[in-house]
Specification:
The protein has 2 domains: 6-67, Arc Repressor Mutant, subunit A, CATH 1.10.10.10; 82-212, Umud Fragment, subunit A, CATH 2.10.109. It contains 3 helices and 12 strands; from the N terminus they run H-H-H-E-E-E-E-E-E-E-E-E-E-E-E. The chain has helices at 6-22, 28-35, 39-51, and strands at 55-56, 66-67, 82-92, 97-98, 105-110, 122-128, 141-146, 155-161, 167-176, 182-185, 195-197, 203-212. Helix 1 crosses helix 3 (39-51) and helix 2 crosses helix 3 (39-51). It starts with 5 loop residues before the first helix and ends with a strand. It comes from candidate division WWE3 bacterium RIFCSPLOWO2_01_FULL_41_18. Keywords: DNA damage, DNA repair, DNA replication, DNA-binding, Hydrolase, Repressor, SOS response, Transcription, Transcription regulation. GO terms for molecular function: DNA binding; serine-type endopeptidase activity. Residues 1-63 form the LexA repressor DNA-binding domain.
Length: 216
């Protein structure tokens, strides 16, 4: 249960009211005026809302606040709406290994962890290996948004398809080199090397948007 500070809870109430009545989020100056606090204190309140995954902001746009979760107006406690996300097997975090998308069931997650992304296009993969350490380690669950394209620097689920009908999967950082080839980089460069592939040799299945750490 996450309880917000007074300023953060009041800032959220004002944001929700403005979006309901005006159809747009308020500016920082409007929030400061409503709270009767400084701009710095307002930014601290907004940062608290972001840290608790209550809102999402675009840094270079005004009135760009998106609400991810609701807040109880009386207690300041973040309301936990949940969604069921399927676990679709494993993705080696080390070398390319054979992997099948075996459905392992579903787990319920707070919807705000999706940061506004469509739960129908989101799935979990269990990580094996430590090539993406410290971001993803053996036993963690990677939260993946389904898509077939990626930008440089994205952490992707990349699949190499085989003539036999099977495939190999890995989670790596997506880059391209000067020749146009795809480079799949590990974060743990001390123990693992990158893979350099043509676009015919690899397919993007999704982009990792979060992680559930294994503390066992």
């Amino acid at each position: 249960m996450n309880k917000l500070s007074k300023d953060a809870a009041q800032a959220f109430a004002f944001i929700r009211m403005k979006m309901n009545t005006a159809g747009a989020a308020p500016t920082i100056n409007e929030i400061s005026t409503y709270l009767s606090v400084s701009t710095r204190a307002t930014l601290d309140a907004l940062r608290e809302l972001e840290d608790n995954l209550v809102i999402k902001r675009s840094p270079y746009r005004t009135r760009s606040i998106e609400i991810l979760a609701e807040v109880d107006g009386d207690t300041g406690v973040v309301k936990e709406n949940t969604v069921s996300i399927p676990i679709l097997g494993t993705a080696p975090g080390g070398a390319f290994l054979f992997a099948e998308q075996n459905y392992e069931g579903e787990i319920c997650l707070p919807s705000r962890l999706l940061r506004g992304k469509d739960s129908q296009n989101t799935f979990l993969l269990r990580v094996t290996g430590n090539s993406m350490k410290p971001y993803l380690e053996d036993g963690d669950l990677a939260l993946v948004k389904k898509q077939e394209t990626a930008n440089r620097g994205d952490i992707v689920v990349a699949v190499v398809r085989e003539d036999s009908g099977g495939y190999e999967a890995t989670i790596k950082e997506f880059q391209t080199d000067t020749s146009g080839k795809i480079v799949l980089n590990p974060l743990n460069t001390k123990e693992y090397k990158p893979f350099v592939l043509t676009d015919q040799e690899v397919g993007i299945q999704g982009v990792v948007v979060g992680a559930i750490k294994d503390f066992s």
